[in-house]
Amino acid sequence: MSSPIGVRHLQAFIEVARCGSFTRAAGHLHLTQSALTATIKQLEQDAGLTLFDRTTRRVILSAEGERFLPVAERLVSDFTAALADLRARAQLQQGHVSVAGSPSVVTRLLPSALSQFRNQYPSIQINIRDESAGSLEQRVLNNEVDFAIAGNHSQQSELDYAPLIRDRYGLVVPSDHPLADRSSVQWREVPNSNLLLLSADTGIRAQLKRFSQSGKIPIRVDSPQIEVSNPAGMAALISQGLGITLLPALAADVHSFAGLTFIPLDEPIIEREICIITRQGRALSPAAAALLNTLRQHLGNISLPEWVCTSG
């Protein structure tokens, strides 16, 4: 069985065409003349055509060889460029990372970690998506993002959920609310009237619903009078005196909640777990793996907000 035709055959063909001599081409390619001759013979046999006309003085391209030379040069050039690109990506000189995160993660955790990453890898392109938990999981499943950082919304069997941080649930109220001066509040003390909630497609609402249905918390969360799709909108409603809400600590530790009061809830103490979400069986690119490693290191070196801690 003959050897398959590959890049080395094309490189040999191009060098012989340029040199017009097997001897000189063999020297440039660091091959013996017999090895080079055998390589060209394999290429001609596979093509079924004579690519060189050999004379006693020199080797010249046949008509078919003349037509094939620019094609061979383009193929070798494209292969060399593609290989160089792969090596550059492996060395993190190039590349692209797409990350999806819940609003609190994108606002509170990613910016400082990204600043550190950009200083180390300035050529890597980064795309960040801020979406609800269900959408984040679907984007990972569809390979639209390298990984997501959010709560475990639906425990998809095709996804891996690696715990990253935990934050405690609390009550968010205006600063002049009767409960605002409390150091903690029990779940049974949360007023059911004027309770604002995030929309059903968010991970926070989904988790609260599971807690309510299991009887872990004595609050119904299925039909609030007002629901909002993101924490920033929720903060605006609370500031206008339209109600209070239940949020994990990290979600309430953003600029839009300045001037409002977060009171940790106990009896029971309930925490949200934020995970790194990846698709099972899919390896991260070098750039994505480097960003994830930077994020983990960054979380280990910074002071997290009160009621927030790293997992593990």
UniProtKB/TrEMBL annotation:
Transport found in the keyword field: no
UniProt xrefs under InterPro entries: HTH-type_LysR_regulators, LysR_HTH_N, LysR_subst-bd, WH-like_DNA-bd_sf, WH_DNA-bd_sf
Superkingdom in the source lineage: Bacteria
SUPFAM superfamilies: Periplasmic binding protein-like II (SSF53850), Winged helix' DNA-binding domain (SSF46785)
Keywords assigned by UniProt, alphabetized: DNA-binding, Transcription, Transcription regulation
GO molecular function, one term: DNA binding
Record domain HTH lysR-type: where: 5-62
Family membership noted in the UniProt record: Belongs to the LysR transcriptional regulatory family.
Protein name per the record: DNA-binding transcriptional regulator, LysR family
Species of origin: Marinobacterium sediminicola
